[in-house]
């Protein structure tokens, strides 16, 4: 009966991905920001299912905007962080479970630091909660009282309440997720093209 049953997990993952994609567009619309055009010249659906890399044009992704792509059947969030959002990250370390992302599998070895990215302003992460796999919602607003007045923006998983910052790092306290959101292997083909699925060391 419940969509949380084991048998429904695949469909739930798919559904929550679509929900995330929809909510992202909704957030962008709510703050009066145009949803960016994101051109991609991806392989066929069959090739994507087999795990082929996905190229994403981020040339028109403005600061504060996020888009969702699909890679290996998983949602990948690509967020263009603002200078203010980047400045907030090191201030949060004492509030997080794993501020340096030391848990194996959290990110590729060439990803370092609190921004967890190759280029600080562009954050690439798999949009699946590390608790039970729901898709966290993008909540960039500051001081949201439903969380607390110190909320500086991040990702919120409504399934069981896990909260992550804008580097996908999970907050200590009530968040049931114990691991940060996972950064996939990726690289840049050029300044405006992210290649998801091909790591920097082999690009
Ligand atoms: S799946 Fe995200 S908090 Fe449980």
From TrEMBL:
CDD domains per UniProt: Rieske_cytochrome_bc1 (cd03470)
Domain Rieske: 89-195
NCBIfam families from the UniProt entry: Rieske_proteo
Native organism: Candidatus Marimicrobium litorale
Record's catalysed reaction(s): a quinol + 2 Fe(III)-[cytochrome c](out) = a quinone + 2 Fe(II)-[cytochrome c](out) + 2 H(+)(out)
Matching Pfam families: Rieske, UCR_Fe-S_N
Note: The Rieske protein is a high potential 2Fe-2S protein.
Coiled coil ranges: none
Name of this protein: Ubiquinol-cytochrome c reductase iron-sulfur subunit
Keywords, comma-separated and alphabetical: 2Fe-2S, Cell membrane, Disulfide bond, Electron transport, Iron, Iron-sulfur, Membrane, Metal-binding, Translocase, Transmembrane, Transmembrane helix, Transport
Similarity field: Belongs to the Rieske iron-sulfur protein family.
Cofactor comment: Binds 1 [2Fe-2S] cluster per subunit.
């Amino acid at each position: 009966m419940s969509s949380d049953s084991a048998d429904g997990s695949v469909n739930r993952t798919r559904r929550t991905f679509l929900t995330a994609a929809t909510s992202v567009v909704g957030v962008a619309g709510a703050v009066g920001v145009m949803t960016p055009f994101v051109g991609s010249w991806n392989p066929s659906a069959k090739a994507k299912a087999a795990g082929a890399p996905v190229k994403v044009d981020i040339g028109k992704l403005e600061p504060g905007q996020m888009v969702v792509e699909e890679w290996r059947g998983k949602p990948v969030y690509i967020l263009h962080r603002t200078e203010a959002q980047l400045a907030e990250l090191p201030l949060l370390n004492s509030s997080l479970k794993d501020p340096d992302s030391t848990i194996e599998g959290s990110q590729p070895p060439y990803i370092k630091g609190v921004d967890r990215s190759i280029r600080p302003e562009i954050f690439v992460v798999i949009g699946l909660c590390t608790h039970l796999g729901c898709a966290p919602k993008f909540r960039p607003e500051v001081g949201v009282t439903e969380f607390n007045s110190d909320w500086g923006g991040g990702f919120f998983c409504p399934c069981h309440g896990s909260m992550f910052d804008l580097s996908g790092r999970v907050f200590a306290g009530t968040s049931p997720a114990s691991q940060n959101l996972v950064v996939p292997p990726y690289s840049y083909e050029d300044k405006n093209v992210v290649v998801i699925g091909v790591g920097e060391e082999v690009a």
